[in-house]
Amino acid sequence: MFLSRIRADGATDRSPWGSFWFAPVGIRTSSGVRVTPASAMTLPDVLACVRVLAESFAIMPFELYKPKASGGRTKERTHWLYKLIEKAPNRFQTPYEWRMMLQGHLALRGNAFCQIIANRLGEITELLPLHPDRMKIELLDNGDYRYRYIDQNGNTITYSRHDIWHLRSLSDDGYMGLSLITLACQAIGEGLSMQDYSTRFFANDAKPGGGWIEYPGGFASREAKQQFRDSWQDLQGGSNRGKVAVLERGMKFHELGLTNKDSQFIEARGAKTTEIARIFRVPPHKIGDLSKATFSNIEQQSIEFWTDTMIPWARLWEYSLCFNLLGPDSDLEPDFDHKPMMRGDGAARATRITQLVQIGVMTRNEGREEEGYDPIAGLDEPLQPLNLAEDSARARR
Length: 397
What we know:
Strand 5 (111-118) and strand 6 (124-130) form a beta hairpin. The chain has helices spanning 37-40, 44-58, 80-87, 95-109, 180-183, 185-203, 222-236, 260-263, 265-279, 298-326, 346-358, 364-370, 392-396, and strands spanning 27-28, 34-35, 62-67, 73-75, 111-118, 124-130, 135-139, 145-150, 156-160, 164-168, 211-214, 252-255, 333-336. The radius of gyration is 30 Å and the shape is flat. It is built from 13 helices and 13 strands. The chain is 39% helix and 15% strand.
């Protein structure tokens, strides 16, 4: 029998090409559940939070600016960095797929890695993503460090610090970012335990424990009692659940009902949803929990999501692009633009653009561009309100 590399990509495959030997062991929590990034993603709340963060970041437009000596800045769309981030980061992925993947790695594991491929001119031509679970940092005697990566064949590849673009979130040592899954493993483990309990509960027709049998007589021995119990389970349990039972000798079956604690289980799961959302700093309404959302505050919560959650992630990417790829001597300014996502509905956007145009902050063509319309000749000059213009008499003097 041949070992197929195509089929050997599951987390449980223990062949030389499987992922089993490279997956993190995880942390066993107090609830008895072992939490890993993969198992955490089976919890709908975690999956929803990671998707919100990854997809929200992937849709942010990217621009590369160069400051002008006279003030302001111009867009640099012929530079290799703009082409990488906005056009084609590598030969395999679109920019959306690539950004979504790396931001997902950051949200789950606190680290994202890319191998840097450069040409003879020193321009970076590709950024190839590497899975964080297969990457380790090795400290060197001279105080520097390097990366050791285990590929799909089990081979260890050593990269210098300059061969890897490393995005790291909050870190306590400056080398590796901290994983939210590791830090919040107890809360996530509890959520997984509740999900497992709920699954088993509904697999039993949403009945807490079947019931109990009243027998006016007595069994001859403990073995006879156990034998009757096993027989009842075989006849009425599993695939036979729901079939008509025949009782003898005055026996009566009493079905157990739901207790108040069982009835409040759904409320406990709802509280867990809010807790998971708080860990990822995602508003609950973004993952489908509308219990505390109203028409008056949901728009403000959406704006706060971009200002308090996504802008910090965008700054992390921007500073890393400057420091690790452009170099500290470059005067170029990467920018992930969040403003298009904060414009609100049509009426709010129209009011905002109108006000900015009327006070001269924005030209009319800039307002058209923001809404996706082509420019019109003669609308490139800012308007100047009469009450803000210089007094004509004073100007003549």
